[in-house]
Specification:
Blueprint (H helix, E strand, L loop, with lengths): L1 H26 L3 H26 L2 H4 L1 H8 L5 H29 L2 H15 L10 H11 L6 H24 L6 H25 L6 H12 L1 H19 L5 H42 L7 H26 L3 H32 L4 H23 L7 H9 L8
Amino acid sequence: MGRARAVARGASDEARGTVRAARAALAGPGRERDLFLQSLKAALAALVAWAGARLVLDSTLALMAPWVAVVLVQSTVYRSLAYAAQQTLAILVGTLLATLVMRTLDDQLAAMAVVLPLTLLLGNWPRLGAQGIYGATSALFTLASPEVTLVSAGERAGAALAGAVVGVGVNAFVRPPEYLRSTREAVRGVVCEAEEILTAIADGVDETWHHDRAHRWYARSRRLPALVRGVRSALEWSQESRRFHPVRAHRDRIGRLEVVSAEVLVTLDKLADHLIDLGRVVVQTQEERRDRAIPDSGVTGPYAELLRQVAAGLGAYRRTVVEGDPDDVDAARRELSEAVHASEATYRRLRTELPQRMTDDPEATALFGSWLLIAHRLTTQLRERTLPPDEGAEGRYERGRGSARPRS
């Protein structure tokens, strides 16, 4: 009975997830709509390939065209072309080998016993990638045909080639796939999570901490590297989508993004590292001070203010990366500069006041000193993002390494 309820609950959750995805696809641009449109494109490619092949071939051979076309509507135009070359080669080899062996042995079962091991071994050739299996499947289709001749092998290969052309053509010229939006969404996800962690710690810094709360903040900070890996993956998809993309404007947008992407990844990596350090120190503070209020609101208040200022700076930095309107980017850059100046002023004040306010509690002084150092590292990271844009990535890189070489 319990198993049946679990199955019913799982089916209900899947149904709700499907409904949510359908609503998201209808509501506006996003991952769900992209998946929906790619599915429609694959169906269109299969229909076009079938209709064309059916005009000149019988249904058994014509099936090869939509079978190939539907799987070549891939996530990027470059990937469609690469898979088309691999798949076509595998199909040609499998079809020709099956035909020759069948013509030699004149026995279907014996031909399968010879051809299938060979084509399956061929499928492991790295040059064919994941498309190597099509050598074995095309050999099976060939051997299962009522008549196996060199003419039918040529027609089968021609249908597969036509399907590949249709699949690649539909993917390239009917709403070619782009990944700029997914990259921006991935960056937005990382920085928004970092903002929320900082704000949560700032809101709770004056209160008595308990084990669950401190460890919850630390657990959230430890998830940030996985989100950063998602940004790196999205950037790689964006850069791949540039290759062989038919729309020059998209290739130009990706080219501009590549200049920024290295900076963004470095910033997000360091941001994740600093927040993990902060979460670790928060847990250490909770464990060492067990159910005691953090001392002296004269320190905790400004420190909470510092964390909120850093969070505001992160929000401004996020908008400089993900916004497309130049006016919005300029406004965000100004907000970032203001937030950095404010947080640096708060840091200097805290650095001066901390030893004076905690003379009777060296342990708290050491812990809050660690907090202050991490917050300052976050502020420093944001300050580097306020450098004039004409310095470019190379100038920032040289400065980051401590180079004194003057820029020409």
